[in-house]
Amino acid sequence: MAKIDPKKNMKMPKKSESTQKIDDAFVLSINTLDLNYLRTFRAIFEEETVTAAAIRLNTPQSTVSSHLKKMRALFDDELFIINKSTNLLSPTEKGRFLSLASIKILKDVEQILDDGNAIAEKFTYSTPRTFHIVADQYAYQVLFPAYLDLQHQIATQIKYVVKNLERHVSTQEILSIQLDDLEFSLQSDLMITTEFFDRVELESEVLLHDEWVFVARKNHPFDTTIQSSLLSTLNLVLTDKSPLLSVVDLLNRTKQKDIKLNVIATVPSFFNVASSVARSKNLIGFIPKRIAESYQGEFALRIIEHTLETLPIELRLYMSRRKQSDPAIAWLKKSFKDICIRGCE
């Protein structure tokens, strides 16, 4: 007698076409979804406006808008539409589906973080230890002054060797060499940078967000908002990290304009931009907002508003997944996150 496969004739309930599309899109997209985008989505879902979500997350509104834009592209859906009667954002069908899924995902992530904090608590920072950290110039200027000042007060036995990422290895080299080679050559426990590296061997987490702004001397004659049509009239000083050239390239390609930048000088650091602007009567610089704010008093700078769409700055912490169970590294990671939650002030 032939055997009967009970699964062969079993009729499974069919999903609706729209639900199946949502499921497929979610499965395909979740693998490339940054969890920070998911947190942003939840904040918008619960607050119902981008402005309120930005306040809740203590994040620039441009960053929230950028995250939403990327999620819309990723899921091929608006996710939210404006309710004309209330002027609030209401979720689409896919938006409601993603909201339910995000609750479980974020809850699982919080549990993982709690487990990481438990590991960190096993480390006694009164024990002598030297940490090796690689950082870019943004982390040097924004994060480390506040962090080291605090740690020198409470963890007197801990020493830090901090190396400049740009001086040791380029982005292309990091992407091409093996992780073990990177760790060996830089002797690092952590890497903190605004660069984005998509490597399976590295665990990454966003520490803080920032945005690009224009700066000038307080007595600079420019007294209006900078728009794309005004870019060619400015005398600019930039760093090689400035995204302004790519912004102009995008404007030229999408709006068929011929905007040319009048770049007077390209300097190696944000400090050089600020000092150059401070010494000049007509130069305008383009640097991260947090750095601009830290230099306002020293160089008598003012921040000029602009309407350009630039990618938000995300300062990320990277560590080898093999070091996740090391209590000392877990403590180091947690202490950086704590200082960022306090605002790096």
Describe the secondary structure blueprint for this structure.
Blueprint: H1 17-30, H2 35-47, H3 50-57, H4 61-75, E1 80-83, E2 88-91, H5 93-120, E3 129-135, H6 137-142, H7 144-154, E4 158-164, H8 165-168, H9 171-176, H10 179-186, E5 190-193, E6 202-210, E7 212-217, E8 235-239, H11 244-255, E9 262-267, H12 270-279, E10 283-288, H13 289-299, E11 301-304, E12 313-320, H14 327-341
Parallel strand pairs: 3-4, 3-5, 8-9, 8-10
Antiparallel strand pairs: 1-2, 5-12, 6-12, 7-10, 7-11
Describe this structure in words.
The chain has 345 residues and is of the alpha/beta class. It has 3 domains: 17-117, Arc Repressor Mutant, subunit A (Orthogonal Bundle); 123-208 and 314-341, Periplasmic binding protein-like II (D-Maltodextrin-Binding Protein, domain 2); 212-311, Periplasmic binding protein-like II (D-Maltodextrin-Binding Protein, domain 2, 3-Layer(aba) Sandwich), CATH 3.40.190. It is 47% helix and 20% strand. The protein has 14 helices and 12 strands. A 5-stranded mixed sheet has the order 4-3-5-12-6. Helix 3 (50-57) crosses helix 4 (61-75).
Structural key phrases:
5-stranded mixed beta sheet, Arc Repressor Mutant, subunit A, single chain, 345 residues, alpha/beta, D-Maltodextrin-Binding Protein, domain 2, 3 domains, 14 helices
Radius of gyration: 24 Å
The level 1 CATH classification of the largest domain is Alpha Beta
Q: What distance separates the N and C termini? A: 79 Å
From the spread of the alpha carbons, the general shape counts as globular
Low-pLDDT runs of 5+ residues are 1-31, 168-186
The largest sheet, given as strand count, sense and whether it forms a barrel, is: 5 strands, mixed
Proportion of residues in β-strands = 15-25%
Average pLDDT: 76
What's the helix count? Answer: 14
